[in-house]
Every structure is written in C-alpha cells, then in structure tokens.
Design a protein that fits this description.
Elements (H helix, E strand, L loop, with lengths): L1 H15 L13 H7 L6 E6 L3 E8 L5 E4 L2 E9 L2 E6 L1 E3 L2 E4 L2 E4 L1 E3 L2 E5 L4 E4 L4 E6 L4 E9 L4
Antiparallel strand pairs: 1-2, 2-13, 3-8, 4-11, 4-13, 5-10, 5-12, 6-9, 7-8
Helix pairs in contact: 1-2
Amino acid sequence: MKNFEIAIVCVTMVAALPAQADVTFKHITAEEAAHAVAGKTLASPIVDGPQFSMSFHKRLESSHVEKHMGWDEELVIQEGDVLLNYGDTASNAREMSPGEFNADAVTSGKSLMLHAGDVVILPAGTWHHQVLKSPVMRYILFKTRKQPG
C-alpha cells in the first residue's frame, strides 16, 4: 500500500504546482490508481498539457531503446522489478518523429535495478531501455518540457 501512498503524494504535489496549464485539483485513491491500468489497459492519463503530463503505466514486456529530446521523464515505480539501461549513446539510432528516437541498444551506458518505491529522473536526450525482471511493472510517468537553455 505504501507505493500507492507515493502516487497520492505525487498527485497532491502536481495539484500544488503554479498553473502553467489548466491544472485542477484531483484526488486518486490507491484502488483507483491500481484500476487505471488493470486488465489490458497499459496507460491512463492523469494530467496532459503542453509543459507537463502525468500518467499511470503498466508494462508487460521490456521497452524499446529510446530517447526524447524535448522532455525530461520522471518515473515512480509502483510494482515490479526492472533493469534500466541508460546512457549517452546508442547503436543504430533512428529518428521516429521530430525529437523522438529509437535504437537497437544503449552503448557505453550504465545499468540500474529498479524496484517498487524507487524514483528515477531521465533528463531529455538520455537513451534508456527498461528490461522487465518481473511479470509486470506499474509506474507513474511524469513528463516535463525541457526548458530551452
């Protein structure tokens, strides 16, 4: 239940942020959070705006290798175990859409084992690949627009 409490704290923090888009108060119970990605549902949006988004996700298989140039990503792991491979370079990189890339493998990177309750921040431009080590991974995904600089 502690992982669901983390989700509720995150939702509360979002509601307290200064309004850059139309963000309204929202309370999501632990049961509602679990139900949001129950069954075949893999993603459920909570807040979606031009500068920030937040969504519940469930992974039943490993991700592809990817990087996003315009978004920082923050993940709060709620359930499961996943090996995160991340780094600055990848093999056979290809741009799928403007600023969105896929590749075959993260090269010269690092690996980190993530478990329920862990939080990871992936800055824009970081190659990453989530390799499932449990049957399911549930997480909250925050995406924040990278500030020009």
